Amino acid sequence: MKNYINNIADSIEQRNSEPSDYLNETDNLMYCGKCNTPKQKRLDKPFFDGRNIVPIPCACRSKEIEEERRQEELRKHFQLVERLREQGIRDKKMLQWIFNNDTSDGKQIDIAKRYVENFDKIKAENAGLLLWGNVGTGKSFVAGCIANALIDKEVSVLMTNFGIILADMMNLQIDKNEYIANLNRKSLLIIDDFGMERDTAFALEQIYNVIDSRYTASKPLIVTTNLTLSEIENTAIQTDYRRIYDRVLEMCVPIFFEGESKRKDRAKEKLNKLKEILG
What we know:
The chain is an alpha/beta fold. Helix content is 52%, strand content 14%.
């Protein structure tokens, strides 16, 4: 055991030694020739073999170790973020839906930023958002900004729609309960284009199961929809819709998106450019 410990200490000193290192005559310890700080430490109480000097990193080596540690943490962070983004955002165009690409001055984007900044408290309160308004007013973009920003903070998010969910659940090989349980493992679930899915009895039942299980799991939900708030709050609609909408309203704070369709504006811009090209 004594030889084993001595060999380890000698090996560390050999690996860390540089030609410029020198023995300090004041304390009789080895010093780094680069930063002039000790590379050895004298112990108050020696080991059982009598050795009382052990190798330590000098100041410049300590900085290198800290930088290596920081780089490793950064590498692990980017690997995790890449994996979360690959799992959580299926539509690759949504990768560009980030706050830095926003050109609006609407209050909705400010609400979205505050949602991200305070997500720990929001998650604890199981507080979601219902982003509603006309087609093309930026609801999906804002939801995507939230998704990407939270993923950057290592939060698991899934942004999908009920069309995809229902198609998955139609697969007879899938355990529906396990599928829903996987959805609830995400810290945030974003359902885009809510209300555009098929209205079959199977679809409505599964939609309710997804939303209700999210409610039971106390996990936040964000929904974007072209439905009006009056349509969602309408008590005269059939029971299957009413119980779905009631759950959404119970879980999500309504945020209205107004204005002209940005899709129409982009279409006009493309048409004008085409006219210029064609003369």
